[in-house]
Amino acid sequence: MVSLQDKHSFRIPVYARDLIKVTSLDQLRDLPNTQDLWILGEGTNTIFTEDFDGSVLWVQLLGIEVQEESDAWILNVGSGENWHALVEYTLARNMPGLENLALIPGSVGAAPVQNIGAYGVELSEFVVSVEGYDLDAQEMRRLQNAACEFNYRESIFKTSQFSRFVITSVQLRLPKSWSPRLNYPDLADLSAASTPEAVMQRVIEVRQRKLPDPQQIPNAGSFFKNPILAVETVEGLRAQYPNLPVFPIDAAYCKVPAGWLIDKAGLKAMQVGDAGVHQNQALVLVNRGSATGQDITELAHKIIAQVYDIYGIRLEPEVRLLNSFGLIPKAHWWHHGA
Q1: How many CB atoms lie within 10 A of CB 46?
Q2: What is the predicted pLDDT for the residue at 338?
Q3: Residue 337 binned pLDDT confidence (cut-offs 50, 70, 90)
Q4: Per the domain annotation, does 211 fall within a domain?
Q5: Is the pLDDT of residue 71 over 60?
Q6: In the sheet where 2-3 sits, what is the strand order?
Q7: Which of 171, 206, 241 is the C-terminal boundary of a domain?
């Protein structure tokens, strides 16, 4: 058995049967054909709630290649590279575009799985393709952007058919025609003449003010997805809660902040064992010291149930939670929670 406590940022003391560190493509081709496998990057969006009865594939493939075209830079980035370090790398070389996504924890390989996004920008805008190794077919595959089926915090890589697809590199395109993206409230007071560095610095300041550092307080970032609701539903909620923040997506749907719903439901003080809601950002659940997997799942169930009782909205975890067999399915949360 191998400890996973330092392999996921919630730092619950759990074990896996085996840990395989992958630093070269040749290793992937030589892997034994085992089905009980979990593919892991930096573990910042994964919580192991109990001992995992299988092998963890810890992907550490590194390397950044840059190709300049007349109107853009094309980056081919190893999946084991750190995401924020890549953002810093691009800005240091005058290749802007990713600054709104600064300080998002995790690896480059995990970024397309989650289709990471922040402050009005999503990764999918920049992805050309994602390359990986299919452990079942025992071959490399490259998926172009459209084939990745990107959506809000979703991608094809979250589906069961891609559970044995090891992302090895991500190809990004950063257009040379750049202007700051400031249409998010926390950035709205910045000037249209702001530099990419100034935007990144503001994003870092806001994130550090609102979100706990996983190195200081173990957490896995935003625990719940922001619900996407029909406009009619939002109008009904607004009649009851006039201060509800709303972010329009299109003519039919809006996004509302899960953190606001949790906060206004009076759940910031909620705690189960050493698992609690973060005092500055209700969207983040934290390990206050010695939280167990049972603590965190019970806390999540209670929040989901109470938010549903108050607003009629079903929250869904953004974090990927695992039990001894693998990923805990979505239906589990709603069956117990609402």
Answers
A1: 24
A2: 46
A3: very low
A4: no
A5: yes
A6: 2-3, 15-22, 52-59, 37-40
A7: 206
User: If you average pLDDT over residues 42-65, what whole number do you get?
Assistant: 97
d(CA 240, CA 261): 13
Domain containing 281 — which CATH number?
Answer: 3.90.78.10
Please count the CA atoms within 13 angstroms of the CA of 148 that sit on its side-chain side: 28
The whole-number average pLDDT for the span 309-331 is 93
Catalytic residue among 79, 124, 222, 320, which? Answer: 222
Q: What is the DSSP string of 78-145?
A: ETTSBHHHHHHHHHHTT--S-GGGTT--SBTTHHHHHT-EETTEEGGGTEEEEEEEETTTTEEEEEEG
pTM: 0.93
Nearest to 190 by CA among 251, 240, 255, 120: 120
Task: Tell me the one-letter amino acid at 231.
Answer: V
Tell me: pLDDT of 207 over 90. Answer: yes
Say which of 11, 153, 173, 320 is annotated catalytic: 153
Q: Are residues 116 and 143 in the same domain?
A: yes
For the chain, the domain total comes to 3
CB 148 within 8 A of CB 192: no
Q: Is 222 a catalytic residue?
A: yes
Mean predicted confidence (pLDDT) in 141-146: 98
Residue 212 lies in a domain: no
Q: Which of 81, 124, 318, 320 is catalytic?
A: 318
- List pLDDT tens digits, range 237-284: 999 999 999 999 999 999 999 999 999 999 999 999 999 999 999 999
What backbone torsions phi and psi does residue 324 show, to the nearest 5 degrees? Answer: -65, -25
106 and 32 in a single domain? The answer is: no
For residue 176, being part of any structural domain is answered with yes
Residues 46 and 75 in one domain: no
69/192 same-domain check: yes
SS3 213: coil
Q: What's the chain's average pLDDT? A: 95
CATH number for the domain harbouring residue 51? 3.30.43.10
pLDDT at 335: 63
Query: Is 153 among the residues known to form the active site?
Result: yes
Structural domain includes residue 69: yes
Which domain, by its residues, includes 75? 64-206
